[in-house]
Amino acid sequence: MDSFIIRGQTRLKGKIEISGSKNSSLPIVATGLMTDEKITLHGVPRLSDIDSMLKLIGELGCHVYRHEPKSKSVAEGGPDLNGPLDIQVESEKNCEARYDIVKTMRASICVLGPLLAKRGKAVVALPGGCAIGDRPVDLHTRGLEKLGATFRIENGNIIGEVPKGRLKGCRMYLGGAQGPTVLGTINVMCAAALAEGETVLVGAACEPEVTDCGELLIKMGAKIKGHGSPEIRIEGVDKLHAAEHRVIPDRIECGTFMVAAAITNGELELKHCNLDHLIAVVDRLEEVGVKIERSNGTIYVNAARRLNPIEMTTQPYPGFPTDIQAQLMALLSIGDGMSVVTERIFPDRFLHVGELNRMGAKIRKEGPTAIVHGVKELQGASVMASDLRASAALVLAAMAARGTTRIDRVYHIDRGYEKIEQKLNAVGAQIERVKAA
Ligand code: EPU
Q: Is any atom of ligand 1 closer than 6 Å to the C-beta of 188?
């Protein structure tokens, strides 16, 4: 297991190219199961979670081919460091997503809707809890049941079937106690795209990743309206066809690097991003005192010396994303006063609090809220990565801290940040990857 050794008090300055979105790519790769024809995807990042999803659809009968990159950037302005990805179904015999894969990547649940809609059967290992909470999948199955699927749990697997042969559209509400579900909305939208008749999905998640998947489905021949709003209308079609698509830029990676500029009192130019997807993040960072400007898909970020304390609550899109809560907390830990951070999507997502406190932060947790008393500086320490975004927060804190920090178990970071140490080192960070003894 690799670790990072990070020398602190570095100031970041320069350009970083934002990768394609991990959370868009994962369900979008799974839509490859929904047609017999070839899907070509651009901008899919090279990450261990993407490798797991490609392995999974490979086991489900897809041929996956990654082309060599032709040039560093493509005409549309998106990053294409990785080469396009072709996905084509060759066999529909296997409908099982094994626990070995699901346990490493919960987003495996994305194959449920596509498999039921196209093959009429799905066996998906039930994902267990994870570092950020219980993470049930009841809304996914409830939505699919309304379309006519049946489910039973057997030996830790969800077994889904379509007794009538084809799913049937209906009007349904998909919200839950914590609000809408992103991957649940995508699963039901995918299934409804091949169902008979019209589906109206009320209480749908509005995240840009839902919109992106909807856009690909439309290119494949689906009839979808309202994706990106709380009410999605889907008129089912008999089959979907080949399509080519570029995934949106990773708004969470972009937000993380915005905080990186702020926490190191640096100046970054972030290329190939969509600031419209980060409106709540920009709002909170500006309140803290961070200066943000945009021009043609590039964001310029630099920070004031004095960081104001703020109140912040995570919410479904377009609210402040839970996936940037930990990173912002790292910044607020060296703010000038007391900040209040409330987590409304995953109320237990605070594993970074203890680790930031090891680095000298003064953060107290009270239920779903953290009270952050800003300190003058953080100090280097040995800390442990726990989940993807908490680990990113530790990298940010370490770059600002006095002294050296060691972060163990950085495989969590590799799940979701493409070449993070190369990108940050190229703008002045000092991060070394070492193999654990
Ligand atoms: N929920 C239920 N029942 C369900 C599904 C969700 O109660 O069947 C609850 C969840 O427990 C949570 C809330 O609904 O309280 C929202 O969860 P959601 O379903 O939206 O999360 P997700 O779709 O499983 C995606 C991202 C997460 C991100 C969340 C929220 C992917 C692969 N994952 O998860 O990303 O935090 O949406 O925006 O898209 C990450 O990238 O680090 C990450 C965890």
A: no
